[in-house]
Amino acid sequence: MKILFISVISLVLSLLAPTKPETAATTSIPVCGMKGMDQFVDAPGFLAFHESPLPLHYVSKAGEMTTFSTPDGKKANAFLLKSAKPSDKWLFVYQEWWGLNDHIKKEAETYYNDLKNVNVIAIDMYDGKVATDPAEAGKLMQGADKARLGAIMKGAIALAGPKAEIASVGWCFGGGLSLQSALLEGKQAKGCVMYYGFPEMDVEKLKTLDTDVLGLFGSQDGYISPKVVAQFEENMKKAGEKIEVKMYDAVHGFANPSNPKYDKAAAADAYSRSLTYLKDRLKA
Question: For the chain, N or C: smaller number of CB within 10 Å?
Answer without folding.
Answer: C
